Amino acid sequence: MISNPNNVERMRGWDITSPESEGFHACIEPGIQDCRSVHIYRLNMPAGKRFTLESGELEMNPVLIKGRARVSCPAFREEMEAKDSFYIPGRTAVEIEAVEDAVFYIGAAVCEGYGAPFFRKFDLSLPLGEIHQIHGHGVGQREVFFTLNPEMPSSRLLCGLTWGGNGSWTSWPPHQHEKDLEEVYCYFDMDAPQFGLHLSYLKSGQVEDVVAHTVRSGSMILAPVGYHPTVASPGTRNTYLWVMAAHSHASRRYDLAVEDPCYVGT
User: Fold this and answer.
1) pLDDT category of residue 2 using cuts at 50, 70 and 90
2) Where in the chain are the domains?
3) Residue 10: exposed, middle, or buried by beta-carbon count in 10 A (0-12, 13-18, 19+)?
4) What's the fold here for domain 5-118+127-247?
5) Rounded to an integer, what distance in angstroms lies between the CA atom of residue 33 and that of residue 16?
6) Which of 183, 59, 61 has its CA nearest to residue 120?
7) What does the pLDDT look like over 86-103, one tens digit per residue?
8) Is the pTM for the entire model greater than 0.90?
Protein backbone atom coordinates (compact mmCIF):
# COMPACT_ATOMS: atom_id res chain seq x y z
CA MET A 1 0.00 0.00 0.00
CA ILE A 2 1.46 3.36 -1.06
CA SER A 3 1.83 5.65 1.97
CA ASN A 4 2.78 8.87 0.14
CA PRO A 5 1.75 9.30 -3.53
CA ASN A 6 3.63 12.60 -3.77
CA ASN A 7 6.93 10.90 -2.93
CA VAL A 8 6.26 8.20 -5.50
CA GLU A 9 5.55 10.78 -8.19
CA ARG A 10 8.75 12.63 -7.30
CA MET A 11 10.86 9.47 -7.60
CA ARG A 12 9.32 8.58 -10.94
CA GLY A 13 10.78 11.83 -12.26
CA TRP A 14 14.32 10.61 -11.51
CA ASP A 15 14.28 8.30 -14.58
CA ILE A 16 15.92 10.00 -17.59
CA THR A 17 16.52 8.37 -20.99
CA SER A 18 19.60 9.97 -22.55
CA PRO A 19 19.43 10.95 -26.26
CA GLU A 20 21.02 8.76 -28.92
CA SER A 21 21.04 11.49 -31.59
CA GLU A 22 24.28 13.11 -32.70
CA GLY A 23 25.59 15.98 -30.61
CA PHE A 24 26.21 17.23 -27.09
CA HIS A 25 23.21 16.75 -24.80
CA ALA A 26 22.50 18.08 -21.31
CA CYS A 27 20.75 15.13 -19.64
CA ILE A 28 20.62 16.20 -16.00
CA GLU A 29 21.07 19.74 -14.69
CA PRO A 30 20.26 21.45 -11.38
CA GLY A 31 17.15 23.58 -11.65
CA ILE A 32 15.80 21.44 -14.48
CA GLN A 33 15.89 18.00 -12.88
CA ASP A 34 15.39 17.28 -9.16
CA CYS A 35 18.97 17.99 -8.08
CA ARG A 36 21.19 20.83 -6.93
CA SER A 37 24.79 19.73 -7.49
CA VAL A 38 25.16 17.06 -10.18
CA HIS A 39 25.33 17.60 -13.95
CA ILE A 40 25.30 14.82 -16.56
CA TYR A 41 25.98 15.20 -20.29
CA ARG A 42 26.10 12.78 -23.19
CA LEU A 43 28.18 13.34 -26.32
CA ASN A 44 27.39 11.24 -29.43
CA MET A 45 29.87 11.55 -32.28
CA PRO A 46 29.90 9.75 -35.64
CA ALA A 47 33.29 8.62 -36.92
CA GLY A 48 35.36 11.50 -38.29
CA LYS A 49 33.54 14.23 -36.36
CA ARG A 50 35.37 16.71 -34.13
CA PHE A 51 34.12 18.48 -31.02
CA THR A 52 35.63 20.96 -28.59
CA LEU A 53 34.57 20.19 -25.03
CA GLU A 54 34.73 23.33 -22.89
CA SER A 55 34.20 22.94 -19.16
CA GLY A 56 33.39 26.59 -18.36
CA GLU A 57 32.46 26.92 -14.68
CA LEU A 58 32.32 23.15 -14.21
CA GLU A 59 34.78 20.35 -13.63
CA MET A 60 34.16 17.33 -15.86
CA ASN A 61 34.94 13.61 -15.93
CA PRO A 62 34.14 12.28 -19.44
CA VAL A 63 34.15 8.50 -19.96
CA LEU A 64 34.19 6.92 -23.41
CA ILE A 65 31.36 4.41 -23.22
CA LYS A 66 31.58 3.11 -26.78
CA GLY A 67 33.88 3.47 -29.79
CA ARG A 68 37.31 5.02 -30.19
CA ALA A 69 38.47 8.65 -30.11
CA ARG A 70 41.46 10.96 -29.95
CA VAL A 71 41.64 13.66 -27.31
CA SER A 72 44.11 16.48 -26.89
CA CYS A 73 44.71 19.46 -24.63
CA PRO A 74 47.88 21.06 -23.24
CA ALA A 75 48.04 18.43 -20.46
CA PHE A 76 47.63 15.25 -22.55
CA ARG A 77 47.21 13.84 -26.05
CA GLU A 78 45.78 10.32 -26.09
CA GLU A 79 44.07 7.62 -28.13
CA MET A 80 40.93 6.53 -26.29
CA GLU A 81 39.22 3.16 -26.28
CA ALA A 82 35.98 2.19 -24.57
CA LYS A 83 35.97 2.95 -20.82
CA ASP A 84 39.04 5.19 -20.94
CA SER A 85 38.40 8.54 -19.26
CA PHE A 86 39.85 11.92 -18.43
CA TYR A 87 39.30 14.74 -15.96
CA ILE A 88 39.38 18.49 -16.56
CA PRO A 89 38.81 21.33 -14.07
CA GLY A 90 36.96 24.52 -14.93
CA ARG A 91 37.92 26.77 -17.84
CA THR A 92 39.59 23.96 -19.77
CA ALA A 93 39.06 22.91 -23.39
CA VAL A 94 39.71 19.47 -24.91
CA GLU A 95 39.66 18.66 -28.62
CA ILE A 96 37.90 15.37 -29.37
CA GLU A 97 37.91 13.46 -32.66
CA ALA A 98 35.84 10.30 -33.11
CA VAL A 99 37.91 7.55 -34.73
CA GLU A 100 34.84 5.29 -34.64
CA ASP A 101 31.26 6.16 -33.72
CA ALA A 102 31.73 7.30 -30.13
CA VAL A 103 29.57 7.83 -27.06
CA PHE A 104 30.78 9.75 -24.01
CA TYR A 105 29.01 10.01 -20.66
CA ILE A 106 30.19 13.11 -18.80
CA GLY A 107 29.79 13.77 -15.08
CA ALA A 108 30.20 17.38 -13.98
CA ALA A 109 29.89 19.67 -10.98
CA VAL A 110 30.77 23.21 -9.97
CA CYS A 111 34.53 23.77 -10.01
CA GLU A 112 35.95 25.44 -6.91
CA GLY A 113 39.52 25.61 -8.18
CA TYR A 114 40.74 22.14 -7.21
CA GLY A 115 42.16 19.51 -9.55
CA ALA A 116 44.35 19.32 -12.66
CA PRO A 117 43.74 17.61 -16.01
CA PHE A 118 44.62 13.93 -16.26
CA PHE A 119 43.94 10.94 -18.51
CA ARG A 120 43.12 7.46 -17.20
CA LYS A 121 43.47 4.24 -19.17
CA PHE A 122 40.89 1.60 -18.31
CA ASP A 123 42.68 -1.47 -16.93
CA LEU A 124 40.93 -4.12 -14.84
CA SER A 125 44.24 -5.97 -14.49
CA LEU A 126 45.34 -3.35 -11.97
CA PRO A 127 45.76 -4.84 -8.48
CA LEU A 128 43.04 -4.07 -5.99
CA GLY A 129 43.68 -0.66 -4.41
CA GLU A 130 42.76 2.97 -4.92
CA ILE A 131 41.42 2.57 -8.47
CA HIS A 132 40.32 -1.07 -8.86
CA GLN A 133 38.13 -2.44 -6.05
CA ILE A 134 35.69 -5.21 -5.14
CA HIS A 135 32.70 -4.17 -3.04
CA GLY A 136 30.01 -6.18 -1.27
CA HIS A 137 29.71 -9.94 -0.95
CA GLY A 138 27.55 -12.81 -2.16
CA VAL A 139 24.74 -11.75 -4.48
CA GLY A 140 25.69 -8.11 -3.79
CA GLN A 141 29.32 -8.33 -4.90
CA ARG A 142 30.39 -5.93 -7.65
CA GLU A 143 33.57 -4.74 -9.31
CA VAL A 144 34.48 -1.05 -9.36
CA PHE A 145 36.95 0.93 -11.44
CA PHE A 146 37.33 4.57 -10.38
CA THR A 147 37.55 7.11 -13.18
CA LEU A 148 37.97 9.83 -10.54
CA ASN A 149 38.99 8.40 -7.18
CA PRO A 150 39.09 10.25 -3.83
CA GLU A 151 42.90 10.36 -3.86
CA MET A 152 42.88 12.52 -7.02
CA PRO A 153 42.11 16.18 -6.33
CA SER A 154 38.88 17.66 -7.63
CA SER A 155 36.29 20.10 -6.35
CA ARG A 156 33.16 18.00 -5.86
CA LEU A 157 33.21 14.98 -8.18
CA LEU A 158 33.80 11.29 -7.48
CA CYS A 159 33.13 8.89 -10.37
CA GLY A 160 33.58 5.28 -11.35
CA LEU A 161 32.37 2.26 -13.31
CA THR A 162 30.56 -0.66 -11.70
CA TRP A 163 29.77 -4.20 -12.87
CA GLY A 164 27.47 -6.49 -10.95
CA GLY A 165 27.21 -10.26 -11.34
CA ASN A 166 24.80 -12.12 -13.61
CA GLY A 167 21.32 -11.45 -12.24
CA SER A 168 22.83 -9.97 -9.07
CA TRP A 169 22.29 -6.96 -6.86
CA THR A 170 24.56 -3.94 -6.74
CA SER A 171 24.68 -1.38 -3.96
CA TRP A 172 23.29 -3.88 -1.47
CA PRO A 173 22.59 -3.31 1.37
CA PRO A 174 20.81 -0.16 0.19
CA HIS A 175 22.55 3.08 1.12
CA GLN A 176 21.97 6.83 1.01
CA HIS A 177 24.23 9.86 1.35
CA GLU A 178 21.70 12.65 0.94
CA LYS A 179 23.19 15.08 3.47
CA ASP A 180 26.48 15.26 1.60
CA LEU A 181 26.24 14.06 -2.01
CA GLU A 182 23.93 13.45 -4.95
CA GLU A 183 24.45 10.53 -7.31
CA VAL A 184 23.44 9.44 -10.80
CA TYR A 185 23.74 5.93 -12.25
CA CYS A 186 24.32 6.06 -16.02
CA TYR A 187 23.76 2.60 -17.53
CA PHE A 188 25.54 1.14 -20.58
CA ASP A 189 26.39 -2.23 -22.22
CA MET A 190 22.85 -3.41 -21.40
CA ASP A 191 21.17 -3.42 -24.78
CA ALA A 192 17.72 -5.02 -25.15
CA PRO A 193 16.61 -7.61 -24.31
CA GLN A 194 18.92 -7.20 -21.30
CA PHE A 195 17.56 -5.03 -18.50
CA GLY A 196 17.87 -4.29 -14.82
CA LEU A 197 15.82 -2.61 -12.12
CA HIS A 198 16.98 0.48 -10.24
CA LEU A 199 14.97 0.91 -7.04
CA SER A 200 14.33 4.20 -5.25
CA TYR A 201 12.83 4.72 -1.81
CA LEU A 202 13.17 7.56 0.68
CA LYS A 203 12.97 6.26 4.24
CA SER A 204 14.58 3.32 6.02
CA GLY A 205 12.55 0.15 5.50
CA GLN A 206 9.65 1.93 3.80
CA VAL A 207 9.69 -0.25 0.69
CA GLU A 208 5.93 0.14 0.22
CA ASP A 209 6.78 3.34 -1.66
CA VAL A 210 9.56 1.81 -3.78
CA VAL A 211 9.69 3.00 -7.39
CA ALA A 212 11.26 0.46 -9.77
CA HIS A 213 12.93 2.05 -12.79
CA THR A 214 13.59 -0.33 -15.69
CA VAL A 215 17.15 0.35 -16.89
CA ARG A 216 18.99 -0.45 -20.11
CA SER A 217 21.80 1.20 -22.07
CA GLY A 218 21.19 4.96 -22.04
CA SER A 219 19.15 5.01 -18.81
CA MET A 220 20.23 7.60 -16.25
CA ILE A 221 18.68 7.51 -12.78
CA LEU A 222 19.01 10.30 -10.24
CA ALA A 223 19.49 9.70 -6.53
CA PRO A 224 19.31 13.17 -4.95
CA VAL A 225 17.96 11.66 -1.70
CA GLY A 226 17.02 8.25 -0.40
CA TYR A 227 18.16 4.69 -1.00
CA HIS A 228 18.99 3.31 -4.46
CA PRO A 229 19.80 -0.43 -4.77
CA THR A 230 19.82 -2.07 -8.19
CA VAL A 231 19.34 -5.63 -9.46
CA ALA A 232 19.88 -7.21 -12.87
CA SER A 233 17.59 -9.63 -14.69
CA PRO A 234 18.95 -13.17 -15.24
CA GLY A 235 21.46 -13.06 -18.09
CA THR A 236 22.25 -9.39 -17.39
CA ARG A 237 25.02 -7.68 -15.46
CA ASN A 238 24.07 -4.21 -14.27
CA THR A 239 26.76 -1.97 -15.73
CA TYR A 240 26.92 1.74 -15.09
CA LEU A 241 28.95 4.88 -14.62
CA TRP A 242 28.13 6.37 -11.25
CA VAL A 243 28.68 10.07 -10.70
CA MET A 244 28.71 11.55 -7.20
CA ALA A 245 28.58 15.32 -6.79
CA ALA A 246 29.20 16.64 -3.28
CA HIS A 247 27.27 19.65 -2.05
CA SER A 248 30.60 21.17 -0.94
CA HIS A 249 34.28 20.40 -1.34
CA ALA A 250 34.44 19.35 2.32
CA SER A 251 31.92 16.54 1.72
CA ARG A 252 33.73 15.16 -1.33
CA ARG A 253 34.26 11.81 0.40
CA TYR A 254 33.55 8.21 -0.51
CA ASP A 255 32.97 7.02 3.05
CA LEU A 256 29.75 8.89 3.80
CA ALA A 257 27.23 6.27 2.66
CA VAL A 258 24.65 5.34 5.31
CA GLU A 259 23.29 1.81 4.95
CA ASP A 260 19.61 1.15 5.58
CA PRO A 261 19.67 -0.34 9.09
CA CYS A 262 16.76 -2.60 8.14
CA TYR A 263 19.00 -4.53 5.74
CA VAL A 264 22.47 -4.33 7.27
CA GLY A 265 23.96 -7.81 7.38
CA THR A 266 21.68 -9.23 4.71
Assistant:
1) low
2) 5-118+127-247
3) middle
4) Jelly Rolls (2.60.120)
5) 9
6) 61
7) 999 999 999 999 999 999
8) yes
